[in-house]
Amino acid sequence: MLRGALRLGLGPGLLGRGLGTRREGSTLGKAEGSGGYRGSGVFPVSSHVTFRTRGPGPRWEDSGPLGAGDWHGKVLEIKKKIQSILPGGAWSPLCDTSHLPPEHSDVVIVGGGVLGLSVAYWLKRLEKRQGAIRVLVVERDHTYSQASTVLSVGGIRQQFSLPENIQLSLFSVEFLRNINEYLAVVDDPPLDLQFNPSGYLFLASEEGATIMENNVKVQRQEGAKVCLMSPEQLQKKFPWINTEGVALASYGLEDEGWFDPWCLLQGLRRKVQSMGVLFCRGEVTRFISSSNHMENAIGEKVTLKRIHEVHVKVDHSQEYQPVECAIVVNAAGAWSGRIAELAGIGKGPSGTLQGTKLPVEPRKRYVYLWHCPQGPGLEAPLVADPSGAYFRREGLGNNYLGGCSPAEEEEPDPGNLEVDHDFFQEKVWPHLARRVPAFETLKVRRAWAGYYDYNTFDQNGVVGPHPLVINMYFATGFSGHGLQQAPAVGRAVAEVMLEGHFQTINLSPFLFSRFYLGEKAQEHCII
């Protein structure tokens, strides 16, 4: 019975059902009782929650030397502040609290990368009335120095094995090609993604040729422009490739290539801020929730949980700020598994839905940049070798980016972002030099490491609500292709939250319940 219900899919959207948090003038409705969302039959898990009150506080600005008039104004301002804390005076805080998150938000998005920002964008774009939904984005790395988004190679392709992934990328490439129609902000300069439509070139050995043919058939059925090439055709079009060991190749003719990830990130952030989305620099450390114990038709015990409050530890402080909310979106990328654990996900008996973890963990990947004067020219696509090595051109100065995913038993320690240069010498360069003889003389100029939000179950995204923690939604686990699919994924998550079901693209195979059911949505084209 439970398994059957999980396969049926989704119910009414939480926001669409009128769950809100704002006590004053909420357009999303008001839940029963005075304790947030504790309706009938639901009791709080925590026994006591302490709220800290705060006011808006003054903002001090350093405007240089003061003249006589300015000094007089400052003196009056200081007198007013002193009077405000004397007996009988109106209370006004003396500290600046502008860095703190709000006490209430309809939606709290954990993670301010492109996936989290895309969810925020589509929530605001699809809301029934402007300002109807209050959205807060919590991001701990405000510089994005370790963000997967900006450390990626910025590729986009439709050459996947699953129809859902192909559809996601087709939607996203249309978004990217028309980005200023979506993300334009009045009086700000237009965005330039520097989209390079040079395509992807996948190479297959004799062993992988049949799989490639089947993949291309699916890709064409979904509307992707992809062609198959024999070794002879490959050699003729790209004479710099050594076709030894290549039985077949697939080449993206349209809407594939690479773009500037930082530009997309900043464009989304700029746009959602103009739409009223709030940002907080901090880290989510705790969820306060209530539980409802039930039995299904066959007597199985089920515990439903609802998060009422998110605790955010603000940067450079040991204190936390509680934020009441209706919905939490887990878009924390490589760390989304930890956020799920904070919500109690996976903390139950083994083999049960309650004990099913979110199988997303950080996997470290290296990206190397090298120079090769005799390397492939401007027509070079992003090449994916059967060995797992890949490369693409970077700019116009005979520079190239590339790398290779390690074998499972050779996964590097994700505890830091240090680069293993020996990995390039031993695992990457030999394959590159074999495939492109000119790379025999390449010189590595620099390298960096980033994280995949790696789904160990089937290397595919997790989208939509959790079946037991009913107001936590996921946008994570894309295992390296989250950046390119972010515009479509954000819309899908927003649709489920607002309407209760997917509308533009049916992503039911990517629901969390598949981990419990053991139904893999296996993606075979992972780089």
From TrEMBL:
Keywords in alphabetical order: Oxidoreductase
InterPro entries with a match to the protein in the record: FAD-dep_OxRdtase, FAD/NAD-bd_sf
A Pfam match: DAO
Gene3D superfamilies associated with the record: D-Amino Acid Oxidase, subunit A, domain 2, FAD/NAD(P)-binding domain
Top-rank taxon: Eukaryota
Ranges of residues in domain FAD dependent oxidoreductase: 106-495
Reported function: Required for the assembly of the mitochondrial membrane respiratory chain NADH dehydrogenase (Complex I). Involved in mid-late stages of complex I assembly.
Protein name: FAD-dependent oxidoreductase domain-containing protein 1
Naturally occurring in which organism (per UniProt): Pontoporia blainvillei
